[in-house]
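Field reference: sequence -> structure
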Amino acid sequence: MGASGSSQSTPVVTETVKPVETSEPVKTLLQTDPNRVKEAAKNFTPGNMYSSECPMTKGESPAPPSGCPMHAGQGDNSDINPDNMMPPPNQRPAPDQPFPLSTDREKSTIPKFSEKEEEKWVYPSPQMFWNAMLRKGWRWKDDDLTRSDMDFIIKIHNTNNEDAWQEVLKWEALHAKECSYPRLKRFGGKANDLSPRARFRCWLGYEKPFDRHDWIVDRCGKEVRYIIDYYDGGDIDTKTGRFTLLDVRPAFDSPSAVWDRMKVAYWRWRFAGGQVTEVPKIEQKTAESSS
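Structure field:
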């Protein structure tokens, strides 16, 4: 899929993009302990890895290894995607890879801010995840992951993103009259940068999140930054693959965001006794219907 800087022939990689499925049971995918694979998924979330084309991608990426074709023209950043500051994805098998991995990718339900108004973000394939883990320094023998384990990690990753977007839409419902078709514009992972709320919770003795991401949403011409903290919620739900507790909210970047946070905090206190209340859900309309 990417062009190599050497004269050697490059194996042909076939890539297929299919719609995401978040309701399919995942228990049958596993050949090992689900919670062991969960820990691997936490350690290698794209917020901690070098990945591409994914709403959970780390903004600061380590340099690829010397054998990577992306080293070609290292001083030339013309192939860097400005939306996620990442080079083209690597779909080629690693030299010591013990089994083949799928290069198929799933199309998310998350609208992508682009000239093509109906475009969606596309999740990384199992092969892309594997290569990203290797670039971080991981070696498969350390965790002895299987092909089914990788499928499970992908399932966790995609489900987390879909759930996070639904939480964003709950906040965007407060501005439905202003914009009925919000879109994700860009994103960045900040796994080592605790948000102010997460830091305050740590001071109180609570567990810190295992990951954090900032998503920039286009609200029909207005940029809104959302902070997403990912907490470990315990054992995996084997029916859905969920184990993550998401704390999604707009950042205090504008008076509008401050007012939204104040309103929702009051609603939670007034109507739910501090429990999370269900904000009216925005219906994700098509670009055509919102124009």
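Note: The helical segments are 34-43, 126-135, 140-143, 147-172, 196-203, 255-272, 287-290.
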